[in-house]
Design brief:
This protein is 32% helix and 24% strand. It is of the alpha/beta class and 473 residues long.
Length: 473
C-alpha cells in the first residue's frame, strides 16, 4: 500500500525488491489515491521497467486496509509478504523465505527478525525475536515484520479488516493464528526487514500513532471473544501497544498447595511463610513446610507453633539426605490442592495479587508451568524467565536489570512463553505434575531439576508462562 511516500524512500523500497537474490517474485502495489503526482509517476516508471511489478491506482483514498486489499487482488503467487511503502528488505529476504517454504510443506505463516533504519539509512535497534510465542503475541504484536502468509489463508480470512486501521496487521495475525490453530508458524532468526523510522512512524515512537493503541485493544478483544474468552478483561499496559489480560479463575477457586522445603534457618522460612499469609489476597491455599531434618531447637519450636497457629499450614518431615526433587515429589503426593506450587523458603511476597495472577494462567487450557518475576533484595531482577544456552546450559533472563527496566523490547513487562521458569516460585496443575512424573530425583537432586521439569512439561504439549505481574523477593 502506497500513499504520498517521500520519493527517496519509495524508490529505496522498490529497489530493495528488485535487488532480491531470489528472482521468482511479483510486487503488487496499490496507490491509495496519492495527491503527490510524483508518486504515481515513479510507480508507472517501475511498472514499465519490470513486468513483475504490478500497480493499481485507487480513485478514492481508503486507508491502509482497503489499499492493502487492493494490492492483494493483483497477486497470483502462493504466498503473500507484506512490505510497507517506506521500508526495505534485506537482499536475501525472499531467498530465505523460499528456502523455508521448500523444506516445510505445512508452513502457514513465516516471520523474521528486523531492525530500524534511520532517515539517513543507518541501521539501529535490532529486534531478535523468539520462536512462535502465543502469550507474548497476546501481550503485543512482537512479530510485526517481515511477515509472510500462505495465500489461501489470507483468502479465507478475507484480507485485512476495515475498522482496525493502525493495528490491521495485528488483527490479521490474531485471526490467522486462531484459524490455523497455531500450526505451521515459523520464525527465521535473521534480520530480513528494515523498518524506516521517520516522523509520524510507529518505528520512531508508538505514541506517534495513538489510534494504534485503541485499534490493538479492539483486535485483541475480538480474538478473545471469538476464542471463548469473553470473560477475560483487557487493559492497556504501561508501554504503548502492549496489553494485559486478566484471565478468569473458576468458582470456587481451585486449591493451591504451596510446597516449601526447609532445613533450620527459622529466620528465613518464617519471613516466607508470614509474608504469604499476611499479603496474599488469594485465599484458597495451603502451605506445606517440608522439614528436611532440621536440628536447631528454635526452628523445631517454630514449626510446632506455626502449624497450630494457622489452619492452612502443615509441616511434613522428610528425614533423608537433601534431594530437592525428592522433597517436592513427596510434598506433591501429600498435597490436597489441584495446583502445586514449588516455593523456595527464602522468598518474600511483594504484590498481594501474585497468587491470583499465577493461578489465572495455571488454569488456562494449554498452559503447564507458570513462573513469577523475582528480585534480589537490592531491587534488581533475579528471574525474568529461564533462557536455554545461557551460561552453557540455562540461566535467568535479564538478571541484575533494574526493577524499573522494561527489558529487551519490553520483555520484562510482558506475559510470555519461555523454555523454562525457576522452581523458586512455580505453579503447575497437579495432574500435569503427575503426568510427567514430577521432578527427576534420580539424576537431578540439587540443580536444574526445575529446568528439566519444564522441558518435560513442554514436551508433553503444554506452554510455559512467565508473568511479570507476580512479584516477589
Amino acid at each position: 500500500p502506497v500513499y504520498n511516500t517521500p520519493k527517496k524512500y519509495l524508490r529505496e523500497c522498490i529497489e530493495s525488491v528488485l535487488n532480491q537474490y531470489y528472482p521468482d517474485w511479483e510486487l503488487c502495489i496499490a496507490d491509495d489515491n496519492s495527491t503527490n503526482l510524483e508518486v504515481k509517476s515513479i510507480l508507472r516508471e517501475y511498472a514499465a521497467k519490470d513486468s513483475r511489478i504490478k500497480v493499481v491506482f485507487r480513485n478514492q483514498n481508503g486507508h491502509i486496509s482497503k489499499a492493502s486489499n487492493s494490492a492483494i487482488e493483483l497477486l497470483t503467487g502462493d504466498y503473500i509478504a507484506f512490505l510497507d511503502h517506506d521500508d526495505t528488505l534485506s537482499p536475501y529476504a525472499l531467498y530465505y523465505v523460499a528456502m523455508l517454504i521448500s523444506t516445510k510443506p505445512d508452513v502457514n505463516i513465516i516471520y523474521s527478525d528486523e531492525d530500524i533504519m534511520s532517515e539517513s539509512g543507518k541501521r539501529l535497534t535490532p529486534h531478535f525475536k523468539s520462536d512462535y510465542n502465543l502469550d507474548l503475541l497476546l501481550t503485543h504484536n512482537y512479530i510485526t515484520h517481515f511477515c509472510v502468509y500462505r495465500r489461501s489463508l489470507i483468502s479465507y480470512l478475507g484480507g485485512l479488516r476495515i475498522g482496525y486501521e493502525g493495528s490491521q496487521d495485528y488483527d490479521l495475525l490474531l485471526r490467522a493464528v486462531s484459524h490455523i490453530k497455531h500450526q505451521g508458524i515459523y520464525h527465521i532468526p535473521m534480520i530480513l526487514y528494515h523498518w524506516r523510522a521517520i516522523e509520524g512512524s510507529t518505528a520512531l515512537q508508538a505514541g506517534e500513532k495513538s489510534y494504534t493503541v485503541s485499534a490493538g485493544l479492539k483486535a485483541l478483544r475480538s480474538y478473545l471473544d471469538n476464542n471463548g474468552h469473553k470473560n477475560a478483561d483487557v487493559v492497556p499496559s504501561s508501554i504503548d501497544n502492549f496489553h494485559r489480560i486478566f484471565w478468569p479463575i473458576p468458582q470456587p477457586n481451585p486449591m493451591v498447595s504451596l510446597l516449601i522445603p526447609a532445613r533450620d534457618k527459622k529466620e528465613v522460612t518464617e519471613v516466607a511463610v508470614e509474608s504469604i499469609i499476611s499479603k496474599t489476597t488469594y485465599k484458597n491455599y495451603e502451605i506445606i513446610i517440608l522439614d528436611n531434618d532440621s536440628k536447631e531447637e528454635e526452628t523445631l519450636e517454630w514449626l510446632r507453633v506455626i502449624e497450630k497457629k494457622y489452619a492452612n499450614v502443615r509441616v511434613l518431615s522428610f528425614n533423608y539426605p537433601f534431594n530437592y526433587s525428592a522433597i517436592n515429589n513427596y510434598g506433591a503426593r501429600n498435597a490436597k490442592g489441584s495446583i502445586i506450587g514449588l516455593i523456595n523458603n527464602d522468598i518474600e511476597v511483594i504484590s498481594p495479587g501474585w497468587l491470583t495472577e499465577m493461578v489465572s494462567h495455571c488454569v488456562r487450557d494449554g498452559v503447564g508451568c507458570v513462573g513469577a518475576k523475582l528480585y534480589y533484595s537490592n531491587d534488581t531482577v533475579q528471574h525474568g524467565g529461564v533462557i536455554l544456552g545461557l551460561g552453557g546450559l540455562a540461566a535467568h533472563s535479564h538478571r541484575q536489570s533494574p526493577r524499573s527496566s522494561p527489558g529487551y523490547f519490553g520483555r520484562l513487562t510482558a506475559v510470555q512463553n519461555l523454555s523454562a521458569v525457576t522452581g523458586a516460585v512455580l505453579l503447575v496443575r497437579k495432574e500435569i505434575f503427575d503426568e510427567v512424573g514430577g521432578l527427576d530425583e534420580e539424576n537431578l537432586a540439587i540443580a536444574y531439576n526445575d529446568v528439566d521439569f519444564c522441558l518435560k512439561v513442554r514436551q508433553a504439549g503444554y506452554r510455559i508462562v512467565w508473568t511479570p505481574h507476580a512479584e516477589l523477593y
